[in-house]
Amino acid sequence: MVVLAKGELAQISLPAAHPPVADVPTVDLSAPAGPEREAAARALVAACEENGFFRVTGHGVPAQLARAAEAAAAAFFAWPQEEKEEAAPAVGYGSKRIGVSGDLGWIEYLLLGVTPAGGAVPVTFASSSTLPCAAAAAVGSSTSSTPAGPLRGLLEEYTVAVRRMASAVLELMAEGLGLSGGGALARLVTREDSDCMLRVNHYPPRPAAEGGGGAPSLTGFGEHTDPQIISVLRSNGTSGLEIALRGGEWAAVPPDVDAFFVNVGDTLQVLTNGRFRSVRHRVVVNSERSRVSMIFFGGPPLGERLAPLPELLGDGGRSRYREFTWAEFKNSGYKTRLAEDRLSPFEN
Fold first, then answer.
1. Alpha carbon separation from 317 to 92, 308, 320 (Å, rounded)
2. CB 186 within 8 Å of CB 171
3. Is 205 helix (H, G, I), strand (E, B) or coil?
4. What are the tens digits of pLDDT across the range 105-128?
5. Which terms does the record give in the GO molecular function aspect (predicted)?
6. pLDDT tens across 85-112, in order?
7. What is the C-alpha to C-alpha distance for residues 77 and 110, in angstroms, rounded to an integer?
8. Neighbouring residues of 20: CB distance < 8 A, sequence distance ≥ 6
9. 185 pLDDT exceeds 70?
10. pLDDT band for position 141 (50/70/90)?
């Protein structure tokens, strides 16, 4: 349930629009070694260069686990509002406010940090900019006996599987880029101190218009890029996700309950010196059906020093970005509005 104060609904209302359907490239992670895997690696790199967005099949995440986690999350969001707010400390529950800088959306969500073992622990706005995964591990089992315990258990199991898949995506990506050592990128999201997160978003059905007639579209999650290396998303069969193409126009992503979608994040744009494009995206609520999405954010350790990889600069190549730590970048972005460009302060 999303409760908006007077005037807030008007803030997130959008004019009616019918963007074209995005042509999303597909990358098969299960392609066998040899020419087929090489072709998959080339397709992945091309997708990251063009729009920074692609679909993954052959991912190895059990369909039964994904469906069970999604169903458990949907069941939680159907709880009475008072019960959800009581469970907030166990699952990082929040609604309508996205960050602390005034962004609103027709959304309620769970926000969980990822422990070194791959489990998930609740994150609040107050700590989300500084909470390292290693520190979070200490509270990982403290809420297992709460009513939300079964949901937490499923989300933890799901997170382990998706983190493994994210690592496989980054290994294939490194191969496509010709990086020496296939783990150059994957290690950043698989170390014990990697700063990864899981977010579960629920976009309730569009509310009825006052006085009848067609209800407006609403901002579910405003346009933004993700600051991490990559984001791995799965959703139910309800549409709403849109991506900005290279020319700036919006395109609707058709739902696919069997595949995962991968976003290039700001940090990966930096690591590739701008070769890969951090994709701007948003969620528009214009359906009478709920949308549930689960997003794994693969981030590096807080102290990791980030800059374009030397192998991607070439002889005498100019670095477009100055070196910075993930903590520095994350804390800088924490103070901005969703739609702002977080990378510009770090450009050379």
1. 44, 10, 9
2. yes
3. coil
4. 999 999 999 876 666 767 654 333
5. metal ion binding; oxidoreductase activity
6. 999 998 999 999 998 889 999 999 999 9
7. 9
8. 249, 251, 252
9. yes
10. very low
- With beta carbons less than 8 A apart as the criterion, state whether 91 and 122 touch: yes
Per-residue model confidence (pLDDT) at position 131: 26
- DSSP string over 268-321: HHHHTTTSS-PPPEEEEE--SS-EEEEEEEE--BTT-EE---GGGT-TTPPPSB
Q: Look-up: residue for tokens 């799965």? A: 234
Q: Are 205 and 195 a contacting pair, CB within 8 Å?
A: no
- Give pLDDT, residue 63: 96
pLDDT at 145 over 70: no
Chain centroid, CA 249 distance in Å: 21
How far CA 213 is from CA of 8, 10, 37, 217, 246, in Å, comes to: 20, 16, 52, 13, 35
- What does residue 333 show for φ and ψ, rounded to 5 degrees? -70, -25
Query: For the whole model, what pTM was predicted?
Result: 0.91
What are the tokens at 118? 């791959």
Region of 320 (left: φ > 0; alpha: ψ -120 to 50; beta: rest) is: alpha
Which two three-digit tokens encode residue 145? 């006996």
Residue 89 sits at φ, ψ, to 5 deg, of -60, -25
Listed in sequence order, the DSSP H helices in 92-247 are 133-136, 149-177, 187-190
